[in-house]
From TrEMBL:
Protein name, as recorded: SAM-dependent methyltransferase
Xref: CDD domains: AdoMet_MTases
Domain of life of the source: Bacteria
Transmembrane regions listed in the UniProt entry: none
Pfam family, one: Methyltransf_25
Keyword tags: Methyltransferase, Transferase
SUPFAM superfamilies (UniProt xref): S-adenosyl-L-methionine-dependent methyltransferases (SSF53335)
Gene Ontology biological process terms from the UniProt entry: methylation
One annotated GO molecular function: methyltransferase activity
Positions of the Methyltransferase domain: 43-136
Organism this protein belongs to: Spinactinospora alkalitolerans
């Protein structure tokens, strides 16, 4: 149990600017890949957020539902065309159950690491499997830990530079517990915003073990949504697990 964990905390700090922070991501490639993995659907997204992936999947004719911890993120989703019609349950995706069985459960953009402990992540994998039909898939997108990028347990990275926006990330690493505390500093002409996020990180092999504990097998691991090969140099992975029949 993680009694202090609040699944709404991240979203309540970022909801109004979230879409601006993800506009350079390869969303079209992600949607294309997810649509291929889903077949005829339906799809369940853990941490559906503002609907960056869910709304384009819906536009492709797939049924999509979500579990989301932050009412502020859900409000952003609801304000978009089509957003009113997406069934979203507010809750913690490591525990919350929704009705139905899905061909695909999606957990994108490192959000598995938003869960505060190994125990919560193991529960999340079990929850994903419980929502899948036999043969259904669980797609997880996450970064690959890189402790070498830290000096004395700290790092500062320049994430993006544009005329009207600069984003930095300051991070602190606690390797004993596999925790990373980060704050993104987003500077625009309208001011500076601090966007904190905590991660309980894991290497791909640990995630694979969580999948096996939940009755799923590794099907694919790519370096990105386009299917580039995953190598020792890959800093991110897109991994697909399949629920055993
Ligand atoms: C990085 S955003 C990703 C949003 C969306 N999936 C996307 O790809 O744009 C992570 C989302 O997961 C939500 N979230 C984080 N931890 C959660 C939890 N334990 N249960 C439910 N939602 C959670 C956050 O509120 C946020 O909306």
């Amino acid at each position: 149990m993680d009694p202090d964990f609040d699944p709404s905390a991240y979203g309540s700090r970022i909801a109004d600017v979230y879409d601006a922070t993800v506009r350079d991501l390869p969303t079209a490639a992600a949607v294309q890949r997810l649509a291929e993995l889903a077949g005829d659907g339906p799809v369940l997204e853990f941490g559906i957020g503002t609907g960056r992936l869910a709304l384009p999947l819906l536009q492709r004719g797939l049924r999509v539902a979500g579990i989301e911890g932050s009412p502020d993120m859900v409000a952003q989703l609801r304000a978009k065309p089509g957003g009113e019609g997406v069934p979203v349950t507010v809750g913690d995706f490591a525990r919350t159950r929704v009705e139905g069985r899905f061909t695909l459960v999606v957990l994108a953009l490192n959000t598995v690491f938003a869960l505060p402990s190994q125990e919560a992540q193991v529960r999340c994998f079990a929850n994903a499997a419980a929502h899948l039909r036999d043969g259904g898939r669980f797609a997880v997108e996450a970064w690959t830990p890189d402790p070498g990028a830290f000096r004395d347990g700290r790092s500062v990275r320049l994430l993006s530079v544009a005329e009207d926006e600069v984003v930095l990330e300051a991070a602190e690493l606690f390797p004993g517990e596999q925790l990373m505390r980060t704050t993104k500093v987003r500077m625009t002409p309208r001011g500076t915003r601090l966007l904190p996020a905590n991660h309980r990180y894991a290497w791909p092999a640990e995630l694979d073990l969580m999948a096996r504990l939940a009755g799923m097998e590794l099907e694919h691991r790519w370096a990105d949504w386009s299917g580039a090969p995953f190598t020792d140099a890959s800093r991110d992975h897109v991994t697909v697990y399949r629920r055993r029949a």
